[in-house]
Amino acid sequence: MATLTHPTGKIEIAPTVEVRDHDDLARVYTPGVADQVERAAADDSVVPRVTGVGNRIFVVTDGSAILGLGDVGPRAGLPVMEGKSVLFKRLAGIDAWPLPLRSRDIDDLVRTISDVSIGVGAINVEDVAAPRCFELVRRLEEELDVPVFHDDQHGTAIVVLAGLRNALDVVGKDLSEVSVVISGAGAAGSAVARLLLHEGARRIVVCDSEGALHGGRDLDGEKAWLAEHTNRGGLTGDLSDSLQGADVLIGLSAPGIVDEAALRSMNDDPVLFGLANPDPEFDPEVAGGREGAVVATGRSDLPNQINNVLAFPGVVRGMLDAPVRRVDNVVMAAAAHAIASSVETPSREEIVPDVFDDGLVSRVAAAVAGCAHGLSDLTRDRPAPPAR
Amino acid sequence: MATLTHPTGKIEIAPTVEVRDHDDLARVYTPGVADQVERAAADDSVVPRVTGVGNRIFVVTDGSAILGLGDVGPRAGLPVMEGKSVLFKRLAGIDAWPLPLRSRDIDDLVRTISDVSIGVGAINVEDVAAPRCFELVRRLEEELDVPVFHDDQHGTAIVVLAGLRNALDVVGKDLSEVSVVISGAGAAGSAVARLLLHEGARRIVVCDSEGALHGGRDLDGEKAWLAEHTNRGGLTGDLSDSLQGADVLIGLSAPGIVDEAALRSMNDDPVLFGLANPDPEFDPEVAGGREGAVVATGRSDLPNQINNVLAFPGVVRGMLDAPVRRVDNVVMAAAAHAIASSVETPSREEIVPDVFDDGLVSRVAAAVAGCAHGLSDLTRDRPAPPAR
What we know:
The structure is a homodimer. By secondary structure, chain A is α/β, with parallel strands linked by helices. The first copy, chain A, has 15 helices and 11 strands.
């Protein structure tokens, strides 16, 4: 049937059963499936045992924040969603179907996703613009029977925490003591701030394009929450002002917005994460020249690539396997710890494992699944670890 | 990654690209997909060329009429939907994803299906109870940018017309002259009646469980339409009354409701289709004993199995390839003709081709696609063919 297949795109459906003759047909379709249907109708818990529902997810987007390209629309986001689907399958055996949605209204998005969620084991929300994504994920978490993973929040927070743990080990500093500046107050910046707070960081300043978030600014929603729970010193001014004397920069904003002078104004042995795409917030060469610095970017041609691919295959695998009801800070911390500890001896050139590290996905999945089974006592509410 | 795959169910996602190293990763996901996204954002017609959207469909159900089992709910319908997905892929190369929906409200169903339809090339509605399915399909046809195929209406009408054409050839009767009794006024019975009217049948009586539909009964919706456009003789009474002197019985109702006396009361050389599941409306042995009869059922262990699998892979393939905007009577007639003419010399034992007939799907697809390209003049509004 080769002439009938259309190889456009990066994924296809593969039947796991043969249909060669009438016996196959009767078994795969009617009347053979009637028995499974009757058993499932009598007891819904049969459904995951006789169908693939427990291994399926939707990769959902409204197309409002695709990559760094912005609001390109849901159909233009399909190449990204298909790529994500490829990675879910190749790295974690998960069957992920791209689901671009026409709706922009949040009530409609929630209603549609709820309506289709009965056919999958989890929902992966992708590239929905902030601040809409915050309300969307919160409402989905409330209303759905399946867990919700939002890569731009959860995935990024996990990989940043993983990298930061090892980076602080390398420079011999303690998360509860260091001064952290997060550049970017969108989905990623907000989730990172919340997770670092949960993990014991006490000195965090979050900056948006107007500068440091503080109580004196006219803010609402997520940014108001951040202003209230970070920046205890009441710092004002722009990003450069915040960076003076800081130990850690976590850039989740835009390429090239941190200059050499700002980098030089930071504390000794700084940790510099420039995760903007396609280029970091700072010139990586200049940053690397800063004595004692640990530098990480999103780029694959430089050391220390902080990439969400380190997290999402294993995290969602663990969510489906357990199953985990909700991706909370405990789950994220467990995943981050599993990623960080996959690097045997962290160094300036290696604070995160390779994406293709054998066993990484399994370790992350086990850590996440462990949270559902009450095995997360080790990570729950533990203080930030002392410097090694 | 074998330990991470979960082989439950009958389908999985298969990536068509490899992810072995960082180069693959950069090509399949970010930053490699950014170029495709930008091109798609600038021009939506790029989307089907860089993604699999044009070869994808959703198999949608609300679970209200699964097989002959009735309202078992959408999740219990998943084994059927997965089976359908397997057949779409194996027989026609189509990537069909099962989409059970929680909603029952018709507005909600339309909204959800419309919302997700931007990610596929067509919608396959499956096992939605009548009369809701009529309004659902009508509204979807109005509101969606992609075509809608409803197997219980369109698929059944096509295979019945295909079988009937050849059966009438065998007995030497003409569709415009014969007296046709349709047992069943649900999705299938209604669609068959409409298609036969379009094809020139003039003497049709449709019966529901109360007997013949006629103008004197208190009917609404689809049944009122049928009463108005069929049964010109104003026949009253039950199914047995209608069958007296009839040439054709098309059973789309319930097993065993037509007895031997009713069969014997029919005209000489009757055409007897008993398509109820799992057993026909009549005892096939008794029907076969009726001299001159052509007998067909839905059973695979008897000759002349009238099965929707003869139609749906090729029809939807053609819809996607053309693309066809709407499955109207012209499209259905073209598909039926392609199926019927796949039997070189129709006989009492062979009025339809085998499901695995080489080239059947391609021929049906070409006939359907031809309708979109204005090549359907041969089938459009042509009179019923004379007896061969």
